[in-house]
Amino acid sequence: MPEASMGDDVTVIEDAPAKINLALHVTGQRSDGYHRLDTLVTFTKHGDRLGFALADKDEFVISGRFAEALDDSRDDNLVLKARDFMREAIAREGGSAPAVRIHLQKNLPIASGIGGGSADAAATLRGLMRLWNVSLLNATIEAIAIRLGADVPMCLASRPLIARGIGDQIVPVDDMPAFAMVLANPLKGVSTPEVFRRLTNKANPPLDMTPRFNWVEAIRATRNDLEPVARGLLPEIAEISTMLKKQGASFVRMSGSGATCYGIFPTLAAAEDAAAALHSERPDWYFEATETTAGGHDAGFG
Q1: Would you call 273 a catalytic residue per the annotation?
Q2: 174-190 residue pLDDT tens
Q3: Which residues make Cβ contacts (< 8 Å) with residue 232, sequence separation at least 6?
Q4: Is 76 a catalytic residue?
Q5: What distance, in Å, lies between the first and last C-alpha atoms of the chain?
Q6: Which fold has domain 180-291?
């Protein structure tokens, strides 16, 4: 993978923030195999970053800490799929979508339960609309997003929200505060299909976020139904959760299907101190102090 920095040729930059499942309830399974979920989601100020520039031919460059974990030549890369789906939609409406150079700065671990690939795809949709100066109907963009994956509509919004169904029924949560947190991952993968396959109860109680006068306590009353299964597949999840608690996290939970866990801290400074201590203890693992976005923010598109 080429190591590169965002250069002067980049004309549009889009952040692809990490998606954190503060809670994830599995409430059923459809006849087509898709699981019904209720999930409380927020987004961090830490994530991947994408740059876009007009070019003579399509190019895709990857840099960053986790660049080597991706294969930039694979046809199923979500960034390239998002580019191609956007181009198809623009062509159907008689618009122009010229060649583009896309630079992905990969700062998030791969397949880690924090929506890295989906966030990259959503940022590609937002960035290319700006670069190509096109305006598509929201319904068209949303249809492309769900075609790319169940998490992409959430990442397209990149704001605190509750998602239901297969992730396509989204309601903003405008009163959610920002949280200081540490993201922690042992850099070992967990297979999402295997987690769902081993989940014995797929009809759990739905998410109920009322009342929520104290947000941490409200989150504590929810669940991640996938965490017990993921812990059975990867014991390091339990270890990393214990490490976060020992560093003073007021609440710890796994995000998504894992293996990333988040720990909520009282301040960003406390989170930064904890991340530094954890990195000294396990320099081969991933620890990142960050803040989440408060409700009312919308990445927007169109």
Answers
A1: no
A2: 999 999 999 999 999 89
A3: 198
A4: no
A5: 32
A6: Alpha-Beta Plaits (3.30.70)
